DNA sequence: CTGAATCCGTTCTGATACTG
DNA sequence: CAGTATCAGAACGGATTCAG
């Protein structure tokens, strides 16, 4: 069985695009505004360069984010949500709401 | 850095509960109706007994599903969505819709 | 500054065999 | 029928070093 994506399960497709500890945090950072590599690294506490680069690269290939390189010295690279990535907003939001309710319910025990 | 759950990110909480190749497929099976262990095993093509048991156990601990044991021989165990698990419906659905659209957009290239 | 490359320990998965 | 136990390979994650 390959990577994931169980044939006809679009839910899994969606999940696979986000399932990695950091991607969701990256998206959260980009919801507001475009950010530079260094900003992401600083803001997302605990992420290693490897994981950040890797996640960004995959998300770019998946067309969830856009990568813009400026021909400057020193280099400047900006990341932002792509059009497709932007459509994740409502999902992210409903997951956030659900997560909050879940934590409340669970902690009541 | 532990498991996941980035301090105050409810989105991650939600994601963590589902992020395992099989859990989402299990939920899908249970959306309609209660199912027995063997049914799940047969219906979810490719899942190993270990992964199925493990996922079910975790989901039960997370209170996403209910496990009902019947004192019979041979044994009979039924799984169904819990009240909390049931509230995932809209999220599952929006993820499904998003996944479908995503696949369409991507395949247009 | 923005990464790529490497090394290495941890975790996750899956096949198989076995149990009450 | 409904699991558990074991074991090995794959994938993941992080620290560090190097490069344009």
Automatic annotation (TrEMBL), chains A, B:
Alphabetized SUPFAM superfamilies for the sequence: Winged helix' DNA-binding domain (SSF46785)
A Pfam family: HxlR
Keywords recorded for this protein, A-Z: DNA-binding, Transcription, Transcription regulation
PROSITE patterns, per the entry: HTH_HXLR (PS51118)
Coiled coil: none
GO molecular function terms noted in the UniProt entry: DNA binding
Domain HTH hxlR-type residues, every copy: 9-107
Record-given protein name: MarR family transcriptional regulator
Native organism: Vagococcus bubulae
